[in-house]
Amino acid sequence: MLRLNNYDTVDKISVLALPDPAPLNGRADIFLSFVQQYKIVNDPQNGPYRVTTRYYKYAIEAKTGLEIFGYHWHPEGASHIIFPHLHIGAEAGIANPKVASKAHFPTGRIAFEDVVKFLVDEFDVHPDRALWHELADRTKDVFMKHRSW
Description:
Elements: E1 3-4, E2 13-17, E3 22-24, E4 27-42, E5 49-62, E6 67-73, E7 85-88, E8 105-106, H1 112-123, H2 132-146
Antiparallel strand pairs: 1-2, 2-4, 3-4, 4-5, 5-6, 6-7, 7-8
């Protein structure tokens, strides 16, 4: 179950996250880790409010808890890497240590709906609802319409 710490305070950075990596339907060997920071902002043009993403980490982990791959974006903080990127984790089986966990492959912004579609299409994850694709398309359309970058 996702946890969020704010649903009504404007201009406060808040967190939406899975408390623990979640098992994926049809795959006993991989787990989803999800953290997103967001802010509710005034939006008089589309209003009265909208939610803007401030940080994300969408990762697929092995049973060991180590990352297989992860889409990250952390534009603020200690890291000098502020662009959206992909990590290939140690559990991906790549022997090159500069690639495994260290390299930051630029990606552009990644919508969570794209991660869901990727997992279903490429990793044989089984959706738990019949109309999952339509729901993902609908929510991504809203995201695309109102995104700020």
